[in-house]
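Example 3.2
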Amino acid sequence: MDWLDEVKWDRDGLVPVIAQERGSNHVLMFAYMNRQALARTAELGQAVYWSRSRARLWHKGEESGHFQQVHEIRLDCDNDVVLLSITQLGHEPGIACHTGRHSCFFRRYENGQWKTVEPILKDPASIYR
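Structure, written as tokens:
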């Protein structure tokens, strides 16, 4: 059996993916992959996602230069979520979020509201031209 056949793809042919920073174990982002994206990720050793908004493969960093080096690919116990162990490249510290922050999870719930708890490391206007 092909290793990709073991993944439980949703009705749109996608699987949720969590990108976790190697070393710190911070969750940097959440995205989706289709079969081709997961195969390319394994082949390249860099994260390739399926962009639902663009309806195409998206090699993380193709516009920003903030690539994700993949160290390990894991599949959860139900075969329906992929976990990537990555190093975020392109800026120190790494920028994974299109807002110019280290992580896409930069807001924390506090006292009935969402509070921004991580700074912008680089102006997104200077990243995406």
